[in-house]
Amino acid sequence: MKRPLFFLAISTASSLFVLVNQVRIFPKETVKDTVEVVEVDSTGILHIRPDGSAELPTLGSGSGVYLGHGIVLTNWHIATYAALLLWGDFNLPPEEQLITYELGDATNVLADSWICPVEFNLDSKNTDDQMYEVSPTKNDDDCIPSDLTSWITFKPSTPESSLSINPVPLEELLFVDRDLELAIVKLDDAELAETSITPPCLSKVPMKQGETVTITSHVSGVYPAVTVTATVKDEQPKLLLDPDERIPMENRYAAMSIIATIPAEEAGKVGPGSSGGPVFNEQGNLVGLVWTGRGLADGSKEVWFTPTVSWLPLLEQAEIPDDDLRKVLDTPCPAL
Questions:
Q1: How far apart are CA 227 and CA 205, in angstroms?
Q2: First and final C-alpha spacing in the chain
Q3: How far is CA 56 from CA 52, 151, 272, in A?
Q4: Contact indicator for 84, 6 with CB cutoff of 8 Å
Q5: What is the pLDDT of residue 266?
Q6: What letter does residue 206 receive in the DSSP assignment?
Q7: Distances in Å between the alpha carbon of 31 and those of 27, 198, 324?
Q8: Which pLDDT score, from 0 to 100, does residue 90 have?
Q9: Pairing state of beta strands 226-241 and 254-262?
Q10: Distance from CA of residue 246 to its chain's centroid?
Q11: 33-68 b/e with 16+ CB inside 10 Å = b?
């Protein structure tokens, strides 16, 4: 018989979020060609559906942030098959994981591969029987792509659920790195032509212990996004192992993290769906992305986020062949 692949909602033990922009609808007479423009948040919800079909049920949801020019940031585990498999009884060896990728790297065959179910003999006493195989082609309707980009849509958040914005399909994976818990994906910015989004800049300023940050995310798939304030606990980025007890120990991995805490009274705003949610400093600049966290004995919660100071210098030095990404990276934050 064939064992099914596990389709699991993207989630982490932490989630927070902050509405960074107010929504307003401009009068038609003030907008060229009488196009109604809606200003929305740079934060958005990411939905995963097979082949990106809106007619199929959502397999999971996460968060991301739009930086303009079609560029969206989210987590490594959202953009790759890991989000769907990590909590199953799969023990994926490193050589079968899309751990790193840069656009133009033709040697990385996993970027175009599929994870496909295989026939499983229930009568077999061989405990090494695999439930899946890595295939260069989609040889079964239940296969999952290693690169989930074509299965994901991005929908910018609005403070009012009555304001409807159509989700935009993601089109291309530009970069992923598991150690950074970062993914850079791209959509057709023409799809957001009637949506006014003020993207945040990427901060190069190190965090300080005790600093206040705000986080926006779509916890539990809630739309529009929810906001919470956190306090930086450990300012030094460290490679930390995911503490989420829901994930089997053999499937956990470490990523660069800064830890912030939220008080117990705000703990209800934290939960699955916050992965990829942007973290902003007091100036409104992007300082990181939520990727995991854990609850503490006193009811408060830790939020672990991958900081821009750990990956922005690497991206600036990399030669990723995308002009739009280069425009984003070359845009400095305003002087304080």
A1: 23
A2: 63
A3: 8, 11, 21
A4: yes
A5: 94
A6: P
A7: 7, 17, 26
A8: 60
A9: antiparallel
A10: 19
A11: eeeebbbbbbbbbbbbbbebeeeeeebbbbbbbbbb
d(CA 48, CA 81): 11
Q: Is 323 helix (H, G, I), strand (E, B) or coil?
A: helix
pLDDT at 52: 73
Which residues, at least 6 apart from 145, have a Cβ–Cβ distance to it below 8 Å?
81, 113, 114, 115, 138, 151
- Using the predicted structure, report yes or no on whether residue 156 has a pLDDT greater than 90: yes
Task: Using alpha carbons, select from 57, 81, 66, 62 the residue that is nearest to residue 150.
Answer: 81
Q: How far is CA 330 from CA 60, 178, 202, 313, 323, in A?
A: 33, 24, 10, 11, 10
**Domains of the chain in sequence order:** 28-197 (2.40.10.10), 212-310 (2.40.10.10)
**How many other CB atoms sit within 10 Å of the CB of residue 249?**
8
How distant, in Å, are the alpha carbons of 22, 260, 269, 285 from that of 199? 13, 23, 24, 9
Which residue did the predictor score with more confidence, 18 or 219?
A: 219
Residue 203 confidence (pLDDT):
97
Among 12-26, 49-63, 233-247, top mean pLDDT goes to 233-247
Phi-psi region of 306 (alpha: psi -120 to 50; beta: other; left: phi over 0): beta
Instruction: Identify which of 156, 158, 225, 197 has the alpha carbon closest to the alpha carbon of residue 23.
Output: 158
Q: Where would I find the beta strands (DSSP E) of 226-316?
A: 226-241, 254-262, 278-280, 286-295, 301-307
Rounded Cα distance between 68 and 14, Å, is 26
Segment (H or E) for 171 = strand 168-177
Residues 291-335: tens digit of each pLDDT = 999 999 999 999 999 999 999 999 999 999 999 999 999 999 988
Q: Check whether 232 has a pLDDT greater than 80.
A: yes
Which pair of structure tokens corresponds to residue 28? 């038609």
pLDDT at 205: 94
